[in-house]
């Protein structure tokens, strides 16, 4: 298995729903793949693309502005990153999600859980 596969990158994020379809999001990742920190701020939108067992499946796009600390070179990179997102409400106000990042020679999948208050 490749070195970058099956990594666990713990973090915490907040999402603010602007309305039914658009949101703002911020995330902090304690240890990225190089053991550095990552900060993101994002604007996203989603729409219902189907239903599973009578519950909505949402698909959308999100654009992150990311600050990524590359620890081996002690250098921080900044830039925009587009994501495709998918969410499904398993129980009221609890939605697991998947974000898909296109990357050279691979696809990166980010799995998370949104809990709405």
User: What structural class do the secondary elements suggest?
Assistant: mainly beta
Q: Averaged pLDDT, please?
A: 84
Spatial strand arrangement across the major sheet: 1-2-3-4-5-6-7
The count of β-strands is: 7
N to C succession of SSEs = EEEEEEE
Instruction: Kindly provide the radius of gyration, computed on alpha-carbon positions and rounded to a whole number of angstroms.
Output: 15 Å
Hey, roughly how much beta strand do the residues contain?
over 45%
What profile does the largest beta sheet have? 7 strands, antiparallel
Morphology call? elongated
Unreliable runs: none
Question: Keywords, please?
Answer:
single chain; mainly beta; 117 residues
Write up this protein.
The chain is mostly beta strands and 117 residues long. The protein has one domain. The protein is built from no helices and 7 strands. Strands 1-2-3-4-5-6-7 form a 7-stranded antiparallel beta sheet, with no helix packed on it. The radius of gyration is 15 Å and the shape is elongated. It starts with 10 loop residues before the first strand and ends with a strand. The model has no long low-confidence stretch (mean pLDDT 84).
């Amino acid at each position: 298995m490749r070195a970058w596969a099956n990594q666990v990158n713990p973090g915490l994020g907040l999402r603010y729903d602007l309305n039914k379809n658009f949101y703002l999001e911020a995330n902090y990742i304690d240890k990225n793949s190089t053991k550095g920190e990552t900060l993101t701020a994002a604007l996203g939108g989603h729409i219902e693309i189907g239903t599973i067992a009578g519950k909505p499946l949402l698909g959308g796009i999100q654009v992150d502005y990311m600050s990524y600390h590359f620890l081996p070179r002690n250098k921080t990179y900044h830039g925009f990153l587009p994501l495709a997102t998918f969410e499904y409400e398993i129980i009221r106000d609890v939605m697991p999600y998947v974000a898909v990042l296109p990357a050279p020679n691979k696809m990166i999948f980010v799995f998370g859980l949104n809990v709405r208050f």
